[in-house]
Predict the 3D structure of the following.
Amino acid sequence: MAATIFDVAQHAGVSIGTVSRVFNNRDRVHPETRERVLRAIRELNYQPNALARGLASQQTDTLGLVIPQVNDPFFFEIVRGVEDAASAAGYNLLIASQPRQPGEHSYLRLFHRGHVDAMVLVAIDVLAHEVQAIIDRGVPIVLVQQDVGRNIPTFLADNYYGARTLIEHLVDVHGYRRVAFISGTDYTPDSRERLRGLRDVLAERGLDLPAAYITHGDYLRGSGYRAMQKLLDLPARPEAVFAANDQMAADAIIAAQARGLSVPDDVAVVGFDDVPMASYVSPPLTTVSQPVYELGWQAARLALEASREDAGARPITPRMVQLPTTLVVRRSCGCAG
Amino acid sequence: MAATIFDVAQHAGVSIGTVSRVFNNRDRVHPETRERVLRAIRELNYQPNALARGLASQQTDTLGLVIPQVNDPFFFEIVRGVEDAASAAGYNLLIASQPRQPGEHSYLRLFHRGHVDAMVLVAIDVLAHEVQAIIDRGVPIVLVQQDVGRNIPTFLADNYYGARTLIEHLVDVHGYRRVAFISGTDYTPDSRERLRGLRDVLAERGLDLPAAYITHGDYLRGSGYRAMQKLLDLPARPEAVFAANDQMAADAIIAAQARGLSVPDDVAVVGFDDVPMASYVSPPLTTVSQPVYELGWQAARLALEASREDAGARPITPRMVQLPTTLVVRRSCGCAG
DNA sequence: TGATACGATAAAAGCGTTTACAGCGCCGCA
DNA sequence: TGCGGCGCTGTAAACGCTTTTATCGTATCA
């Protein structure tokens, strides 16, 4: 088996308490003793057992991350941000997927079993009072791409402003007046906020947004195709279609082209997210870039900081942070390459 | 704080030993007592502390997963497979990235600190003897998209056969005779195997593969573009280009189109992996589909099984498993839509 | 020179489980 | 009636750490 603290203590001729003090730089230890202990640690390749350490110190040096069970590069990018922040802080990362059956909440289990010091929940359908209860018991939780109010810290891209900029481009630059929407799922705020951006820009210019122009997708492959078909069947075909993410926008383009329509000449299509695929579809997608990696990174940072300041007087942490989005103009809106 | 086993014992009027027996279904407990304990567990919402449990039982119910620090949807798909297998078996998933500096090996730390019962290493640059040592100490390790011999279990897609099928399609169906290659990184076997497939098919047909036709990429965005430029500068321009993954193939297409060349009329381009993007680029990519999710899933299953059979006489586990690949014909090879 | 304080270390008490072992009541059998 | 065995449950020792408390020299001061 691996060397334990006892082995090191024996090897260095000290007690285990001293080894612990040296390893954690706690209290003062005579320089000479410290040197002996360090040598023993090196010689035995000692690494403290994480479980024992967690049990004794009541902290696990582990960050919990819960993500939806969906294959979207968007989430992977968040995972990368979270992972980087965690490992930079010397934390491990424990990942759980939101289970399929809606009743079960895996983040509760992570908490109850004492696995983690803090949690980041990405686009997860949470129970606000449960989350609040966990935070109150000393395990900080930060939400990403989700907002349930109640003073629970939240990191979001500025979906509303991003959508506004995008629609303003369509309306003010290209002069489109009939703009339709393909929504995503509804339990996180992003699709709603993007729709609100669309709605407001149109309203401010006195343009109409008929109910039939709002179709429903689920962010996943295929749903954009079906929604686009419905829109193209409409008597008053939209001049531009705003899909709530790039995947659906890419599918919408395919759907239009399958009918022999040209994008953007017959109908413009724009998306949201700026995933890698966006620049490779034809025509390349005009979309809105979100700082996804950064979102994960900052959320993880906040969660970890909160877990460490737990005892002391903690500074006021932000209730909500919106990160800026950027309009990425390519060709699917009608602009020239 | 959360309820402990003591609270439950007191609440049910039994000893902690009995609570533990009930919770783990070990030994026999009087039905009536069991009922009392179960009620107490329910009423207190008791969940055993994972650390204490791991410390006492010497098993953590946690699977370690190490992936390269790269943003590739390919890896995310593997993560999903591994996660599903782990959670189906009641295991948690601890994720670590291969650190940037080549000297450090995060999987060693996971092992040494007793975090995990088993590990899956994906496309990681490992030290064979270290891995062997860990396995010998009772923590099973399974490699994915990597092979270092030494009886270390390995899951791979059948890269060689996949490449063969792809090249046979180019040569035998389309009649291309000048086929070039854009390689990936070299520390995992996949790029090498794909090149071998290309080489063998050409050789069997008496076709030449000049050294200049083998260019070097790194699987990442951008490198396919540069490699393609070199190929197009060649006096004898290749008729078809085989990129070792789809990302580079997509970039190669862009590079060709930037020169006013038509794909596939002037030069055909094919890739490998069949990532989501492949069907959206223009022309849609002919490529080879790998069972990526399945790769992760099966690797995790094997690792977990091995960790549980540890004590008993374990059946012979496979040294290497190759999963089948499928040719996906789209338009970038010259086939009609 | 003897009481005092202090720096350094050892000893021991948890942390919350699992599990080996002991104990107890009761039944069946000689 | 006495005793071995069995079904059930309590007790206590690990597991490998952290952290509090106790101890022991040694230097300091009156």
